[in-house]
Structure formats: structure tokens, C-alpha cells
């Protein structure tokens, strides 16, 4: 019995050491660690998944007002191309001139806060970033106007209830500026989109600055998240459901293919270029750099 008691005495200190409660981290260490983890998660989400953008101008009114913040899905166009009616954020080409928005110098602390905010996706984007609505996609024919002054896409007139104030009809079209509502028919090149602001009277868009490559699209704006009184989703308007496919999609009828798909004259070889172009566009988007810069969103 004495030996068994001695054995238990030897084991008992080991058990006490195993069951000893784990020492908790002091509060002054735990809070900074949690903040660092939260900051890193925010940066990862902002870089790869979602980002909030600030609306600084009125060219998307009344859909988006000055001061609104929208949430942008940054991965959706790695899976598919933009479709007509979606609101997108994109980098303008060299033809797209930044809008001049006068703001006071925020000072050192303001610039520091803006830099930190940009890392987590809550600051104003850069001078060449814009937000507009997709009106036409690659292969579409877009023009203005029909007999009632409406934009047409592939011959289909668009009823656009989201347009607050349209450009005047009496001004002659000028490809160098967007003051006139009228513009000559544009065939959107493959891999590009034709975008316009909802407030046509003040919007500088593809009417005078040209289509935008799909690879320049940052993501789709799908919801207004701030202010809370303005919370609303940004769905595709029903007017785009009636737009027919572009002429390129009906190429077999134009180049002499019979309804069965046969090609007795060999003229159908050109159709093979269409999926090839789509593949090239997908590869270009997949290789888009994930390195982001401070941005100021222009609408």
C-alpha cells in the first residue's frame, strides 16, 4: 500500500500541471491583436471580393446621389462578362477625362486617414475610376435617337425610367462632347462595353469618350449601403429584357449557313473566331492585376 501511495504522489503533480488553466492574454495585448487581424481581413476582402465606393458627383442621379456609398462585387466578372443594364465601376481609358471636383486640402491627418481607408475599401477612388450603367455590350449597335428620342440597342428602343434629366434633342451631335442626346450609331467592339450615366444632362460617358474594355471593369455595383436611409439594391431594369441579340450572334444567317448548321461553301469558317475572342477576353480578365491603388470614383 505504501508503494501505491508513493506512486500516486508521483503522478498527482503531473496531473495538476496538465489541468492548470491556460494563462489568458492581457487586455492591452489582446485588443491590438484583434484590430490587426480585423484590418488584415478587411484588406483581403477589399482586394479580392468586395469594396465600398464613394459617389462624388451627380451623373448617376437619381439612382445614385452625391455622398452615397455602393458595394461593388469584384469577382463576378472573372466568371462572366457584364450584361446590359448593370451598374459598373471601371477604369477609364486615355480618352476618358477625369471630372474636376474641387476639394479642400485635408492636411496630413486627412491624407493619412484616406490612405488607411483606401486599404480597407472605404475611401474615395482614383481620378480615372468611374461608375456608369452598361447600355450595350460587344457586338451591339447602339444609337440615339428613335422617333420618340429614345436610345436604341440592336434596333430596340429603350424605355429608361431611371434617367432623371436627358440631354437636349435640339443640339446637333458632336463626338467630342456629350451635350447632345443624339449620336451616330456605334458598333461596340468585342470585349468592350458602351456605358452611360443615368443623369444624361451632366454625364460624360461613352457618347463622347468611347466604349470601355471589359478588362478595365473593376466590378458590379449591386447595392447602396450608405446612408442607411438610401439603402437599395441596383437591379437590371426590365427594359433590357427585350433587347435582341447582336447581329454577330446571328452570323450563320448572314454568311450562308443553312438551318442545319452545314456549310457547303466553306464560308462559315469566320464563326470560329467568336468563341476565340471570348476566350481571349476571359484570359485577359483572369490575368488582371490584384494590386490596387488609391482611387477616386467619378460618376
TL;DR of this structure?
Helices cover 25% and strands 20% of the residues. By secondary structure, the protein is of the alpha+beta class. Strands 1, 2, 3, 4, 9, 10, 11, 12 and 13 form a 9-stranded mixed beta sheet that branches.
Q: In words, what does this structure look like?
A:
The protein has 299 residues and is of the alpha+beta class. Helix content is 25%, strand content 20%. The chain is built from 6 helices and 13 strands. The termini are far apart. The relative contact order is 0.19.
Attribute tags:
299 residues; alpha+beta; four-stranded antiparallel β-sheet
Q: Kindly estimate the percentage of residues that lie in beta strands according to DSSP.
A: 15-25%
Unreliable runs: 251-295
What is the 3D shape? elongated
**Oligomeric composition of the shown chains:** single chain
User: Can you count the beta strands?
Assistant: 13
CATH architecture of the domain at 49-257: Ribbon
Put simply, the count of helices is 6
CATH classification, class level of the domain at 49-257: Mainly Beta
**Helix amount, in percent?**
25-40%
Order of helical and strand elements: HHEEEHEEEEEEHEEEHHE
- Round the Cα radius of gyration to an integer and report it: 28 Å
CATH topology heading of the domain at 49-257:
Umud Fragment, subunit A
CATH superfamily membership of the domain at 49-257 = Umud Fragment, subunit A
Amino acid at each position: 500500500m505504501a508503494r501505491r501511495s508513493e506512486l500516486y504522489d508521483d503522478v498527482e503533480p503531473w496531473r495538476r500541471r496538465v489541468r492548470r488553466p491556460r494563462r489568458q492574454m492581457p487586455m492591452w495585448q489582446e485588443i491590438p491583436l484583434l484590430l490587426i487581424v480585423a484590418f488584415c481581413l478587411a484588406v483581403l476582402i477589399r482586394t479580392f471580393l468586395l469594396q465600398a465606393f464613394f459617389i462624388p458627383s451627380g451623373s448617376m442621379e437619381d439612382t445614385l446621389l452625391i455622398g452615397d456609398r455602393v458595394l461593388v462585387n469584384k469577382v463576378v466578372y472573372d466568371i462572366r462578362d457584364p450584361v446590359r443594364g448593370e451598374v459598373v465601376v471601371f477604369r477609364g481609358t486615355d480618352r476618358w477625362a477625369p471630372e474636376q471636383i474641387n476639394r479642400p486640402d485635408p492636411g496630413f491627418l486627412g491624407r493619412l486617414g484616406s490612405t488607411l481607408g483606401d486599404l480597407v475599401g472605404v475611401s474615395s477612388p482614383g481620378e480615372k475610376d468611374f461608375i456608369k450603367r452598361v447600355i450595350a455590350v460587344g457586338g451591339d449597335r447602339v444609337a440615339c435617337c428613335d422617333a420618340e428620342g429614345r436610345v436604341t440597342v440592336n434596333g430596340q428602343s429603350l424605355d429608361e425610367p431611371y434617367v432623371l434629366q436627358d440631354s437636349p434633342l435640339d443640339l446637333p451631335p458632336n463626338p467630342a462632347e456629350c451635350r447632345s442626346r443624339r449620336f451616330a450609331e456605334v458598333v461596340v467592339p468585342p470585349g468592350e462595353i458602351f456605358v452611360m450615366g443615368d443623369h444624361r444632362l451632366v454625364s460624360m460617358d461613352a457618347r463622347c469618350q468611347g466604349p470601355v474594355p471589359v478588362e478595365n471593369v473593376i466590378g458590379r455595383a449591386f447595392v447602396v449601403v450608405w446612408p442607411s436611409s438610401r439603402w437599395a439594391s441596383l437591379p437590371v431594369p426590365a427594359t433590357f429584357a427585350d433587347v435582341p441579340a447582336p447581329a454577330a450572334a446571328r452570323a450563320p444567317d448572314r454568311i450562308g449557313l443553312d438551318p442545319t448548321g452545314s456549310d457547303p461553301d466553306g464560308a462559315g469558317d469566320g464563326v470560329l473566331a467568336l468563341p476565340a475572342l471570348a476566350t481571349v477576353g476571359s484570359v485577359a480578365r483572369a490575368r488582371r492585376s490584384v494590386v490596387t491603388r488609391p482611387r477616386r470614383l467619378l460618376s
